[in-house]
Design brief:
2 copies of one chain form a homodimer. By secondary structure, chain A is of the alpha/beta class. Chain A contains 14 helices and 16 strands. The longest helix of chain A is centred in the N-terminal third of the chain and has 17 residues. Chain A starts with a helix and ends with a strand.
Amino acid sequence: MELIEICRRAKEAKYKVQDLTTKEKNKALLKVADGLIKDTKTILDANNADYEEGKLSGMHQGMLDRLKLDEKRIEAMAEGIREVCALEDPIGEVMESFKRPNGLKISKVRVPLGVIGIIYESRPNVTADAFALTFKAGNAVILKGGSDAINSNIAITNSIRNSLRSLNIEPDAVQLIENTDRQVTTKFMQMNDYVDVLIPRGSAGLIRAVVENSTIPVIETGTGNCHIYVDKDADFEKAIPIIVNAKTQRIGVCNAAESLIVHKDIKDSFLPLFEKAMKEHSVEIRADKESIENLDGAVPATEDDFYKEYLDYIISVKTVSDVDEAIDHINKYNTGHSESIITENKDAAKKFLKRVDAACVYVNASTRFTDGFEFGFGAEIGISTQKLHARGPMGLKELTSYKYQITGNGQIR
Amino acid sequence: MELIEICRRAKEAKYKVQDLTTKEKNKALLKVADGLIKDTKTILDANNADYEEGKLSGMHQGMLDRLKLDEKRIEAMAEGIREVCALEDPIGEVMESFKRPNGLKISKVRVPLGVIGIIYESRPNVTADAFALTFKAGNAVILKGGSDAINSNIAITNSIRNSLRSLNIEPDAVQLIENTDRQVTTKFMQMNDYVDVLIPRGSAGLIRAVVENSTIPVIETGTGNCHIYVDKDADFEKAIPIIVNAKTQRIGVCNAAESLIVHKDIKDSFLPLFEKAMKEHSVEIRADKESIENLDGAVPATEDDFYKEYLDYIISVKTVSDVDEAIDHINKYNTGHSESIITENKDAAKKFLKRVDAACVYVNASTRFTDGFEFGFGAEIGISTQKLHARGPMGLKELTSYKYQITGNGQIR
């Protein structure tokens, strides 16, 4: 199908999806979850074709792992949809209501965004995830997945559409752009008359490409150059487990730590403990001039290192004279994601919370908690690193907008 | 000064502005208001240079009027700033606060957006307005006004900066891009590392240019193809004054009505009354096939007319069979600004409020009320017609973002 026709259909569908009741949406989500289980064989066959293709073309093992589906992963996809079904419906909430002196009654009411475009890479489970969240928030969605997972994505989308159709719900609530040509993707990013918001999910490169080419409003997600600052008043028994957790529990995620900042007054006592812990987890250390003398196995850090989101077993180290210098360093190099201070000093903590410019700022906790589930939102479509519209973990509410409904009895200006 | 240096300074300044207390900001705003009055002569001299230049280059009379300042207009600018000073400071508000089962305390706190870029045309009063609102919401601002008003804008910005400096507040809280070359403006729209949000204020052409060229998140404002739908159950004594008000009270504004939609069952009785009222205000009528037979002096409307924001003494007329067709027509042609239904029928009103896709949807009132002052927000930076971040009149709150502040005692995942 032509891109323009997909967009037209999505715009038609959004009016139908926004009219669905919570009950209708929930019934549909359960049906879709059951449908995915029922269609397991078809989906796995399609996925296998993608996987074989990926192997033949020399796809990296990590990518192959993310691409691969099995019965358990399809069950997890269905379970994820059931969890979204259990979440509260944000649509229709009266956010504010007031009466003006001239008698006009103004209500600010939560409404869907409309048509959401999701551009993502080779993880086919995003297809089901993104549908569930956008649909529950009353939106129509257009999905553009990576070419590597095209057969899987077609099979999953077809399964969802069939389930919707069986309940007489407009199947165009979810559509997949099957043509994965770059030109089509670029054209999609300029369909302002049809698409209300674009959300890219994936690598920094993908997100940059969308930001640069899109004329549709974009929500940037998921680049995290996250720091842990160990203050002079830090409790080392908190600091070490937090750094180990933030750096090594899962290295490839956006809320993993990439850099340690250490106060000069404690570097002699703290850095040897830090290095020991990093060695136990085979983490390479790239250290600045001041810290490298306390670190036996570290290599010198370049300016470039401080800008890097390694997503690997590597951490940079920067020494500072006080909390102000730590804050300035973070505000210069970070990506606005998650930052943590380890300190028992309330003033330092307060200053750090106030002045660090990031979506999530922590005191004495791991940056790994920046996550929709960990925040209690139940699910997330991504972590926003921009300041417009939504910041940090984005749940259902962040997939909505609002409108003002104004009732009068003949008022004029 | 080079653009990059302006951007660097704004990024430095934002950390200082966000640390100011409400008292410090208010004191500064009052000083700035007094300063503008004190500098009246300098500002008027500069403005006169722009005005003479405009006349020489054959500027349209309407544009010249908007460009022209006098003592009264400078007083109004100062008064506008004092009004912003009186508004509640949105910064620091704890929007939500909750504790997770693992003991993490999470607070969602309102913070400034950071650096805001405003791109506007030849109205020099925007310079003072935009500073006051962005500053009160804790932001640094970079202004890019039209070349036609460059001398006025330099004089106003200098006055504001001098007032800030006299209170030891960072003058780079407000900067003007004095180089009005198109290339510089385009480069400005791609300063993602420094500027958090761009807000264009002006014509549809300006806004389109910003949306197409910016890689920074944009808030689209102020294009209004607004409709009034007169239902079969309308009270004509409400309908006529509302249409006259919405169409003619001020023709050049975005919340003015551009199109009448009429239910076929009442067109014979209503349209003659409508035509009489329009004639009294010299409004040209462009009518569809069904309505033109009831209108003596109307010309036929083309498809193109229904897409037009005339901003002139012209109105289009479309006939429909029911409220559903009216809603579909609006959702096809509107710009998401303001739409009104005139009806005594509660079901029709309810359907219209729910299904029309626009920032502000009215029952029995003029679309002219879509305005920050009329909504009680005290002031506005513009009317957003997009769904991301803010919709409708944007006051101080809409110039803010939020961050999550999370306090733990050693939590790891």
